[in-house]
Amino acid sequence: MLISLLLVAITTTSGVVEGNYVVYDGEGDQVKPNVPYYISFMTSDYNMWICRKKWRSNDPNSCPQQPLMVTHPNMAAPTPVMFVLSNKSETVVRESAKLKIKFVDPRPCGESGFWRVVQRTSSEGEVVLNGSESTSDNASTFAIEQTNEYYKFTFGDGPDYLTTISLSNDYPIYRLLSKKFSGEMEIYFYKNLTMG
């Protein structure tokens, strides 16, 4: 009986355990796994989008090694991503669910397109594009959490290891960093590209 009361106390009226809410996109629709989304810094009004460096077939050094947040999308076209869930039976993306982030079209640069955190120091890492879909690859596992009005990406397990994905100070092209005790990159997801 006590267990039943406890379960009722932590379950919302929709039947979803708190902290496991559905993630919504900028159009108010549920975010779905394996569907392309553009990622914007806060709202599309800011005109800052997740991109990859433009690839030029005649320049092997142009291969993108990491996702970027770009202030002026004409420098690099916004690049859609998909969220790949380890629970293949789940039909929506939920807050705190472990997921992989993958660029929709990996480039011919030998990259997998899956995001991965490479630790630079004990408290900071950098997001690169050589991750994997494997559930055992923890360096490629992220989660989406809600902020006050938007969402953020988190990385790591447990409070001692949890970091947020934030932006470097490299205006107008920002690298994505995994940092402890740092600001967070507040983001929103869009199925359709709506640049202002």
From TrEMBL:
- Is-annotated flag, keyword Signal? yes
Report if keyword Hydrolase is assigned. Answer: no
By its UniProt entry, which SMART domains does this protein fall under?
STI
GO function terms (MF aspect): endopeptidase inhibitor activity
Q: Which domain of life is it from?
A: Eukaryota
According to the record, the signal peptide region is 1-19
Keywords assigned by UniProt?
A: Signal
Report the SUPFAM superfamilies cross-referenced here. Answer: STI-like (SSF50386)
**Pfam families documented for this protein:** Kunitz_legume
Instruction: Kindly give the InterPro entries that the UniProt entry links to this protein.
Output: Kunitz_inhibitor_STI-like_sf, Prot_inh_Kunz-lg
Q: What is this protein called?
A: Proteinase inhibitor I3 Kunitz legume
